[in-house]
Specification:
The structure is a homodimer of 265-residue chains.
Chain A lengths: L14 H4 L7 E8 L1 H4 L7 H11 L2 E9 L3 H14 L2 E5 L10 H8 L4 E3 L1 H11 L5 H5 L2 E3 L3 E3 L8 E4 L2 E4 L3 H11 L9 E7 L3 H14 L4 E6 L8 E7 L2 H14 L5 E4 L1
Parallel strand pairs in A: 1-2, 1-3, 3-8
Antiparallel strand pairs in A: 4-5, 6-7, 7-8, 9-11, 9-12, 10-11
């Protein structure tokens, strides 16, 4: 074991593991609101960005859902996720036009009315002058009880209600807002090893099973690739417990015939 | 009206509209199974590919969901979608390893047992010789009552059960299989116009509302963009009724101040 590289962490200390404490697990769901994604007009990149950012801070993203710009679809999905996961991030549908109904959908999810937030109204009056139009004032609407979080791009803050954070869908804004928010989601980090094999999945499947039998809490992934000259399968081993994943990595490497292991990480 | 370009169709005849028949609407959901997407290891491209392909053949994609490699999560989501939409396409989780549990999840969704399909078993025996290992035989498993659909890449057929089509997650295979299947999903086409404006959403929102009031069945989207020198908002108008969308397009163009319209499609 001493000669093997340690699992790759994510820039966090694994003090909790060293202290023998249970790893902290925080779960998240992403709800993307947007007909433009469902109709193929836009290639969503927010979910991939968020998946990587969340993983890097130890958050377990458990669900991504894209729903249309329809009140009941938004409300049902947000309610489902809010009840099951530690927090929910929404993307899109927060502008001033008819198809921006995320605020109404989230409010309906929580059985709350939509109200004008005085601080947002003041911001908008500052921006539009004393007489903002109806569309401008729509941007001041929030589910009753929402709080505002400053930070990130735009002077416009992020609206939070209960465990739900409503982010804009435009990628530059979504990314900036998430980067500004993420420290409040951070959890114990994941540690990962990877093994690349020249053998196909059919040949290594039983060995992966044996590894899981010995290390049942291991997060073990097997990802075949077509047309890559270097390897056929990438096997990933992950855990929040660094020693556990190091041991599982060593065990699986012993199980695998040496000639099928192309490289490890 | 005569001088305006007609709405862009999708290569289909709009004979149904000409005959005054109601447009055919078929709905679809995509269920992506994959921890690798939720953990940000892989940037899913199958959903964007499918969204465009389905739109081009007139199918209304109403929901995209990414769930983890967990039996209950797959079963619950597939059951939900199967009951609400005309058809369901799954992506991923159909290989021979421990994390490939889509067949079991779909079977659980429909309260059916998993069985060995004799035709798949014969295929696998042909491929592996007379003594396929356990992992090889796993590839012959299907929900009881499933049918096989030939075509596309790989000699391995697509497994269908009720309104659910189980596709492989590897992009080359997913795309080839979907292309081979899609004629069975085809519906009446959508027709689309687009208007690009130099005005922001706040300024045009009330005009979009007015257009929707006159054309309540219009699919009207408003997509702001940051950092594009040419325009600030792309407005899309769609319908399965070509005359309807042409009329709405003409109406909205009259409502918009001429100097904010950058270009139209």
């Amino acid at each position: 074991m001493a000669t093997r590289p340690g699992a790759q962490g994510c820039g966090f200390q694994d003090a909790r593991a060293k202290a023998g404490l249970a790893m902290q697990e925080r779960s998240c769901a992403l709800v993307v609101i947007g007909n433009e994604i469902l109709s193929g007009k836009i290639h969503d990149t927010n979910t991939y960005f968020a998946a990587r950012e969340l993983r890097a801070i130890g958050v377990a993203l458990k669900r991504i859902v894209v729903v249309p710009d329809e009140l009941e679809a938004i409300a049902e999905e947000v309610r489902y996720c809010s009840q099951r996961f530690d927090f929910v991030i929404t993307s899109g549908g927060v502008g001033p036009t008819h198809d921006d109904i995320t605020v109404a959908g989230v409010a309906a999810a929580l059985h709350r009315p939509v109200v004008i937030h005085p601080q947002l109204e003041a911001l908008i009056r500052e921006h539009f002058g004393d007489r903002p139009n109806k569309a401008g004032l729509k941007m001041a609407e929030v589910p009753q009880g929402a709080v505002l979080i400053e930070g990130g791009p735009m002077i416009f803050p992020t609206v939070q209600i209960e465990n739900i954070y409503m982010l804009p869908g435009i990628p530059q804004l979504f990314e900036g807002k998430l980067a500004a928010l993420k420290s409040r989601f951070a959890s114990d980090p994941y540690f990962m090893h990877a093994i690349y094999t020249s053998a196909g999945e059919g040949r290594i499947a039983a060995l992966l099973d044996a590894c899981l039998e010995r290390f049942p809490k291991l997060l073990l992934g097997s990802y075949p690739r077509i047309g890559d000259a270097e390897y056929r399968v990438k096997v990933t081993l992950e855990s929040k417990d660094r020693a556990y994943v190091d041991d599982a990595f060593a065990y699986l490497l012993e199980l695998l015939p040496a000639d099928v292991v192309v490289k490890t990480e």
